[in-house]
Amino acid sequence: MDFRICIFILMLSKIFSIYGKKCKLYKCSINYSKDMQRNKVNIGSNRLFCKIIESYLNCLDKNLNYCMGNLQFHTLKTILTKQQEYFNCKNIIKNKKFSHCSISFNELIKIKEPKYYCAIFGGNHIQTFYGYTFHCPFSVGTYTAISNNYLSIQITFDYLNYNNKKLTVIKKISIIINKMSNCTHRRSYTITNDAKNLLASFNDGMTYGGKRLKPSVEIKKINSTSIQISLNHILTKINLYKFNTSLSISILTSNVKNNFKILNDTVVDNYNWNHLCYHGCMMNFSINNLFKSKSNNVINNLENFQNCYNVKPINDFVSSKDICKSKNLKKFYLESCIFDMMYYGNSSYIMANFPIQQQEKIYNIKNNLRKQNLKFSYNLYQNLTCTNVQNSQVYNVFLDKFIQSIIILYYFLHKL
After folding, report:
1. Are the C-beta atoms of residues 141 and 273 closer than 8 Å to each other?
2. Has residue 11 got a pLDDT over 70?
3. In this protein, which residues make up the domain named Repulsive guidance molecule C-terminal (predicted)?
């Protein structure tokens, strides 16, 4: 009998030793450490930390049959379960709107996900998240650049001065960062083009939002002509530039669709095309095709533009082009510079071109948001003549209604 018991114990020990070898606790621990380090996660009541804890527990559960005799397994399971309860993780994961303040913005440059870029600068030039570019020298009034659950940015355009009521410039930029529970306080920043300089603090005098040591929102001075506002909790940063009376802004985010929820109809008003970073100045007169041809045609286009709007150039095309090329500007930024030099004649309006172009290079911006079928809007301005320009205002009204109808139809079909 004793012999049989010994054989049974030996068999059990053999079985447990086989199962023990299959206990992969170290893999669960390595994955946990990698997730925490890669995302710079704060241990606490935030969604990202809770998701990592949940993944850790799921990994342990998969090893349950092989780790039953492992004391470390049971210790880890107990500790993680208690952390879940202590930080209220189950409720946080269920509530999708719960704020998350766990990602450090300085990691943005290392992120492999697509990064998206919007810039509004100079004589009202716009580069959208979609990669489209617009020259909008006739926009007057206050426009929304971005509006969502996290922040709102509004740009006010007005005439250059009382004597020149043809071309417009950026007169004011207003930024509102919304309060998020357990994440950041409400912060706002306003700058006008007649201010002496850019202040490196929000309107209330604060320089951060959230925790002081690791703020969710922070503002800092880059140099005498620019400041940077970082929204660490949504991997977004806003750069503001001021050169004399010229204001410009650029917005960089890691994932517009997830962070800005551009396709979420509860966040962005799909029926309102007054969102510059998404749609540019489609509903106003855009002069995009002035530079889309050979030099001779460009000059003809510019002359037609001048005659049409009774706008007189301050500098000629050739000298403006030479000045702008010396600034090492390319493509859209070169076009914008030439236009500003010709019609604004003020070097301060071209000085933001280079740093905004550099931002695009530093972060390897692809402008890869899926191209939507907006190209037909450009066809209105292919042949720039006075008749076409005047008719384009009528077309814009028709186009506005047509696009709204298409969007409403798409929205209705999407809900079915």
Report:
1. no
2. no
3. 116-355
Q: Over the stretch 198-212, which tens digit does the pLDDT of each residue have?
A: 998 999 988 888 777
How many CA atoms lie less than 13 Å away from 209 in the CB half-sphere? 28
Q: Which parts of 326-385 fold into alpha helices (H)?
A: 331-343, 353-362
Longest Cα–Cα distance of the chain, Å, equals 112
The pLDDT assigned to 413 comes to 52
**209 belongs to a structural domain:** yes
Q: Does 33 map to a domain?
A: yes
Number of compact structural domains in the chain? 2
H-helix or E-strand spanning residue 117: strand 116-121
Mean pLDDT lowest among 25-34, 41-50, 150-159, 281-290: 281-290
CATH, residue 241:
3.40.1000.10
- Residue predicted with more confidence, 17 or 183: 183
Alpha-carbon distance 64 to 73, whole Å? 8
Could you tell me the two tokens for 7?
Answer: 């054989």
Nearest residue to 175 (alpha-carbon basis) of 183, 166, 186: 186
Q: Are residues 220 and 318 located together in one domain of the fold?
A: yes
Using DSSP's 3-state secondary structure scheme, residue 213 falls into coil
Domain-located, residue 305: yes
Answer yes or no: do 112 and 87 share one domain.
no
Task: Indicate yes or no: pTM above 0.70.
Answer: no
Q: Residue 4 domain-assigned?
A: no
If you average pLDDT over residues 169-179, what whole number do you get? 92
Residues of the domain holding 276:
106-415
Same domain membership, residue 359 and residue 233 = yes
76 and 123: one domain?
Answer: no
Cα separation, 309 vs 84, in Å, equals: 66
- φ, ψ of residue 118 in degrees (nearest 5): -130, 140
